[in-house]
Predict the structure of DUF1295 domain-containing protein.
Amino acid sequence: MKTQILGFFTPWIIYALITLLHYFLPGKWVTGYVRHSTTGKLLSYKLNGRLVLLSTVILWLAAGHFELVAYDWLYEVRWFSLAGAVFFGLVFSLSIVLPYASTGKSLVSDIFLGRLENPQFKNGRIDAKMWLYLIGAVMLELNILSFIAHRYSEFGSVPAGLILSAAMLTYFIVDYLSFEKVHLYTYDFFAERVGFKLGWGCLAFYPYFYLIAIWATVNLPDPNTPLWLLVCYALLFLLGWSLARGANMQKYVFKTAPEKVFLGIKPKMISDGNKTLLVNGFWGLSRHINYLGEILMGTAIALSVGYPEVIWVWLYPIYYVALLLPRQIDDDKRCAEKYGELWQAYTQKVKYRVIPFLY
């Protein structure tokens, strides 16, 4: 019973630690893309995700070294930890929605999608969206380390495919936290509110579901995947990353310095005199080429563990498809309303929605 209780509250303790580190560690203040709903001023964000990640991992490894907690503790209490995160996510979601004015939609819609657009606390030192993504990313990394530690302690070795899958996820996390300012210009920040979808998603879903390929195969025999096949999976991941990161970076550069050349790509745009849209480079391939990149990365992570016949490993890339394709439809509708005839001209130049020459 003691282990169960400790396991349940483990994510609470870790989330509190991450919050304190985020608040007190130095960070870079960056002006974002979205504006305050009341004052109209551009919001500023304190960004220190990479430092928080490094500090948390060091503290976790130090705790294991000094036997304060087992290296594989999060694996041993995984179900209780997940339950604690689920409950914490529910409490947060209700507390960030119910005290605030309705959007005019149903209560269920408000709870799921949220009422506040970009809430910030402690004089802006904690932005709810950045905090949620930081919590999810750091907790995911600790789970990865713990699951790999369990595999090593039980079997004395870790399959190369499992290491590759863990490395891809870690790269995904480090990359995201290294380019936090770029993500201030993404759909989440200018189009979504903070409710169950984002709150519970980052606190309970993100840090546990994203490693489902490792979770489902960590105790299975070594599949002995050929080296050449692992190299192919790594290349598929890098292709996906190149599309996702390249597209987001090109958009960021275009938003902040419209005439600047990015990776040798001179920006081409169409304009109605007031608004402009980018129509070349990554954004000339499809309207949401970054979504294709995310799906390819998820597919590579699922394949790398070496058990394509295990259906659970495919839930991760399937989740991306289920999340991003409806988002693409919503984003297209939003852009059509915002840009009007300019958007129609844009879709004539960039005909494909996500997958070039196919969709």
Summary: Strands lie at 28-35, 42-47, 120-121, 126-127, 269-271, 276-278. The two ends are 52 Å apart (CA to CA). The first strand starts at residue 28 and ends at 35. The chain has two domains: 1-219, 225-359.
